[in-house]
Amino acid sequence: MEQRVLGRTGRKVSVIGLGTWQLGAGWGDVEREDALKVLDAAAESGVTFFDTADVYGDGRSEQIIGEWLAAHPEAGITVATKMGRRAPQVPENYTLANFRQWTDRSRRNLGRDTLDLVQLHCPPTPVYSADEVFDGLDQLVEDGAIRNYGVSVETAEEALTAIARPNLASVQIIFNPFRLKPLEEVFPAAHEAGAGIIVRVPLASGLLSGKFSRSTQFAENDHRNYNRDGSAFDVGETFSGVDYEKGLDAVAEFQKLVPEGLTTAQAALAWIVSQSGVTTVIPGARNADQAKANAAAAKGVGHLGSEFDDGVRRIYDEFFREAVHPRW
Fold first, then answer.
1. In the predicted model, is pLDDT for residue 326 greater than 90?
2. Which DSSP category does 204 fall into?
C-alpha cells in the first residue's frame, strides 16, 4: 500500500489507516478476540497506522492495541492516540500536569515508553490559542513521553488556528464526500505548513458504506442511535452531522458514480485519499472482513477521474451545502 509522510512526524504511514473507536465502545459491542482479528487483518492488508484515544472504552481500545503490539513487535505500526476528554471540557484543564497524567496512562495502556503521536481530542476552541498548552506539549516531547503532537478538530477554523503552531505535526478532521469544507482552506494551509492531514469519519459513520436503509436499526449503545442530534457529543461525529434520511438519498446518487470493481465504501475512501493534502484516512472496522475491504480501497486511489470528482461536488451542493452545513 502507498505510504505517505505524516507531516512533521517524518514517519511514513499507509494511505488507508485504521480508526479504532469501535474497538473500545460507542458502536455496540466488539469482543476482544474480534478486535484482535481486526488489527491482524488491517496489518496483513498493508495498514501501518492505527488511531485510538484514551477515552475509547475508557482505555479498552488502547489496551487491545497494546496487547496486539506486544505480540507483533516488528509490525512497524505507527499509533496515534488522543487526550483531553477524561476531564470536564474547560480550557483550564488543559495543563501540563494533566497532560503528563493522561499520557502516562496511555503509555501504560499501549505498552510504549514513548508515544508516536498524541492529539488533543477536540478540546474547547480557546485551547487552540493558548500558548501554555503548546508549551506543555513541547515539554512532553522534550521529556521523551511523546515523539510528536497534533490536534483533532471539529471545525475548519480550529484547524487553521492549530496549523499556525510551529511544532504541530498533524491535524485530524472530519472529511468525506458529504463534508467538503476542509478542501477550501485547511488542506492547502496544512500542506504549506508541513502538517499532515488525518481524515476521520470518512464513511459518514457508515452511511457511505451503502449498506444502510430506512429500516436499519442501531444498538442502544451505538452513537448512531443516541447521538443523531448531538446530545452526547459534537453531531459532526455521527453521520457527519447530516440528516440520516437525506443522507440515504445522497448515497443513492453517490452509488451511481461508483465504478465497477469498487464498493461504495471503497470509492469514497479512494476519493478522499486522492485529494491533495490528505496523508491518511482512518475508517473503522467491526470485523476482519471490513478491515480488509477498507484497505483494498487503496487500489482505487488516483483512478476515479474528473467525472467522479464533479459528481461528488454536485451531490454535496444539492443535498448538503446550504441545508445541512450553512455555517460552512
1. no
2. T
Q: Name every residue whose Cβ is closer than 8 Å to that of residue 215 and which is 6 or more positions away in sequence.
A: none
Q: Please indicate, yes or no, whether the overall pTM of this predicted structure exceeds 0.70.
A: yes
Segment holding 51, helix H or strand E: strand 49-51
Q: How far apart are CA 284 and CA 203, in angstroms?
A: 9
pLDDT at 106: 98
φ, ψ of residue 222 in degrees (nearest 5): -100, 125
Q: What is the pLDDT of residues 284-299, one digit of tens each?
A: 999 999 999 999 999 9
Task: Label residue 241 by pLDDT band (50, 70, 90).
Answer: confident
Please answer whether residues 215 and 285 qualify as being in contact, where contact means their C-beta atoms are separated by less than 8 angstroms.
no
The secondary element (H helix, E strand) that includes residue 138 is helix 131-143
Per-residue burial over 201-210, b = 16 or more CB atoms within 10 Å of its CB, e = otherwise: bbbbbbbbbb
Contact 98, 54 (CB under 8 A): no
- Does residue 144 come out as left (phi exceeding 0), alpha (psi in the -120 to 50 range) or beta? left
Q: Distances from the Cα of 202 to the Cαs of 13, 190, 248, in angstroms?
A: 17, 19, 16
SS3 state of residue 216:
coil
